[in-house]
Design goal:
This protein is α+β, with helices and mostly antiparallel strands and 613 residues long. It is 48% helix and 17% strand.
Amino acid sequence: MGHSKHMLIRGREEYVSGLVKELSDVIVSTMGPGGDIALIQTGSGTMATKDGVTVSRHIAPRDSFSSMISRLIIDAANRTVKEVGDGTTTTVCLLSALYSLWVHNYREQFFDKRQFLIGMDEAAKDVLSLMKEGGRSVYNRDGICKNTLRHVARIACNGDNTTADMISDLVYSVGANGRVMIKKNIGSVTYTERESGYTFDTVLLGRQHLRDRTKGETVLINPLFMLSADVFEDDVDIVPVIDAWLRSSELKDENGAIRPLVIVTTGLTGAARSFISANADQAPVYVVSPPLGGEEGWEVMTDIQDLTATHQVYLKAGGKPVKDAFGADFEPEDEMELPQPWKEFGSAAKCILSPTKCSIIPDKEYSSDSRVALIKARIAKSQSEREIEFLQQRIAALLGGVGVVYVGADSDAEADKLEHAIDDGQRACFTALKGGVVAGAGRSMWFASVHLANVGNVALNCSDEDHVEASYWNGYHLVLQALAIPACQIVANYLGCAKSEAGQKLEELEHDEDLMMSRWRGWEANGRLVDDMFDAGIIDPYLVCQSAIKNALSVAKQLIHCKYVLIEDKGDEGFIGAPGEQVDERINTDDVRELYKRLDLLKANKAGTEWKG
C-alpha cells in the first residue's frame, strides 16, 4: 500500500486573506438590487444569474491549497442555504470581513487567542439577541400579511415586482405549512398552479435515492401508502409486505407498472433497514417517519390516514399495542396479520419527498372539510392553550397546499435567471413566516453594531498587563466592525463605488439622531434615508441573518485559529502559491506520532528559527 504524502505549510495569513477576498469579490458583486449579473459557462450553454449559491458552485480553484480554502467558504454559504434557503452572499461577505479585519488589524497584536474567540462568540450572541428583539412578525390579526410577504419576495427577487407578486400570492395561498415547487415550461410563459396538499416534516429512513438530485427531491405519481405504529426491526417484518406489494396485480397502475410505496413508520432498524437499502434501486419503496411522537404523533398519523384513505394503521401480529409507540390510548380491534396487505394500503394522487419534508397531494375526490370540522369542535371544548395551538397547526396543515411555478422564457439563460429568482423568493417567504423580519439592506446588523460598540470599546481602556480581558474585547469588537460591511457592500454595488466610500456615506447619516435611536429608520440601497423601513418594504427574514452570522463566524474562527496547513502532495501537479511561499517539507501522514512531535517543536520555537530536523 502506498503512503499518502502531504506538505506542511505555514505563515500564509496574507495569502489566505487574498484568496478569501478574491472569492468573496465575485460572489458579493451580486448582492442587493444593484448587484451585477454573472455569466457562467455550462455544458449546455451560458447561464445568467444573480444567485450567490449558483455563482459559488461554479468557481474553480487554481490549486490544492486554494481548493481547500474555497471549500471552507463555500461550505459555510451552502450551510446557510440548507438551513434557511437564502443568505449566501451575506455569509460570504461577513466571513471575508471577519478574516480580513483579523489579518490587517489584529493579527500582529499579542492576544490570548482563546479569549479572543470567546469574545467573538459573545458579540454574535448579543447582536442576534438585539436583532430578534427588534424584529416584526409577518402575521397580523387576520393571519398572514400579504403585503409584508410581497415585500420579502421583492427583496429576494432583486426588485422584480412581477415575480415577487406571483411568488407571494402563491406562498400566501399554500400557507406556512405548504410547499412550492419549480419546474421548467417549454414555452415562454411563466405561470403557477396550486393543488391541495398536506406537508409535514420528516426524515427519510434507509438509503432511498432521490431522483432529482439537483433539487434533492422525488415526485411519486399515484403512490400507495402504508402506515405503521410499529418499528420495523427484522426482515421478517418487512419482507412479507414488500413481497405482496410486488406480486399483487391489484397494486399496479393502468400500464401494469408497479406503483411506488411510501411507508410512514415510527422506525426502521436492523435487518429491515438493510433490506430496504439493499433493494433501493430495484423497488420504489420510500420509508419516512411521522413528524411527531407521543399522542400528538398518533393524531398526525390519523390525519395522514384520512388523507390517503388508508384502511387501518398497521400493527404487526403479536406486536405492542399502539399506545406503547405513540403514547395514545388506542387499542386496535384485532391485530393485523395482513395476509392481503394491499387491502390495508392507502393511495394519493402524488407524493413529493425530500430529505426533510413529505408532501401528499390527495386524490381529487378527497375533502378535508369533515376532518377540519372535527378538529374545530375539539378546539371549542379544549381548555389547554398548548392543545389548542397543536390543533390549529393540524388544521393549517390540512388546509395547506402545494404550489407549482412553471418557468418559461425566451432563452435558456433568461429561464435560469428567473428560476433562481423565484427559488430565492419562495424560500425567503417561508423563512419569514417562520421567524419574522428585521430591517433590510444591512441596517439591522449596522444598528446592532453601533449600539454595542460602546461595550466593545472597553478594550481600548484595558491595561497592557490585562491582556486576557483585552483579548476578549478585541474579539468582541472585531465582530461589530465586520457587521457593518454588508450594508456598505449593498450601497457600493448600487452606486458603483468602493465599499469605503459607501461606508463614509452611511456614517454621515449617523448624525441623524432619529437614525441612532430607531432601528427601523434607515436607508435604501442607494443610501437615501427612509423613515420606516418596514412600511417601505426594506426587510429581511431574521433567520437568514441569524444563519449567515453563525456560519460565517464558524469558518472565520477556524481560519483565525489555524497556523499550520497540510495539503496533499500531488507530485507532478506541483504547488502554486504566493511568491516566495515556504513549504517546510513533505511528510508521511501515516506516521502520526512523528507529525505531532514536529508540530509541537514548531509551536515551541518562539524565536521563529527554522526547524531542520
